[in-house]
Design a protein that fits this description.
Blueprint lengths: L1 H6 L5 H16 L5 H7 L2 H17 L2 H22 L3 H8 L3 H11 L6 H8 L33
Length: 155
């Protein structure tokens, strides 16, 4: 509670302004510009961010230091996403999307009109049961049932 009271004193106005700016940065989620992302997304940039956060923990209000640690982590994360050095950015560059996969499948499934399709198309139509044809001239015979009951027998 003393940290809050100390933060609102007149001699700590700069820290209060920095807290407000950090909170705005975290809430609004600004995109990191490319030139800043390139400076941060290497080992020297990350060490500088960590050293700034440690200095704030040592020399300033703990609330400001914790918020600065959150911003530092967020800044390093956004810089790695912006430059594509994180695992996700490089993976997405090489992994095909569903749209690309479907276009490849349709390209592979384009076959020319074959001789087999042509012969089948020219064949006589298949006679289907229930069509209006003349009744057959034969009568089917029932084989020996060997004491089995007929299927359509009612009880």
């Amino acid at each position: 509670m003393d940290s809050f009271k100390e933060l609102f004193k007149k001699e700590h106005t700069g820290e209060l302004i920095l807290v407000v700016l950090i909170i705005l940065y975290l809430i609004l989620g600004f995109k990191t510009p490319d030139f800043i992302a390139n400076m941060i997304d290497n080992i020297i940039g990350k060490i500088v961010i960590i050293l700034i956060v440690i200095c704030l923990f040592v020399h300033s209000n703990p609330i400001l230091a914790v918020l600065a640690a959150l911003v530092g982590f967020d800044l390093i994360r956004k810089a790695s996403i912006a430059t594509g050095n994180n695992g996700l950015g490089s993976l997405q560059a090489y992994a095909p999307s569903e749209k690309k996969k479907m276009s490849q499948f349709t390209a592979f499934n384009q076959f020319p009109y074959t001789l087999e399709q042509e012969v089948v198309a020219k064949m006589a139509p298949i006679v289907r049961s229930g069509s209006s044809l003349t009744p057959p001239s034969y009568k089917p015979l029932l084989e020996n049932l060997y004491d089995a009951s007929p299927i359509n027998k009612s009880n």
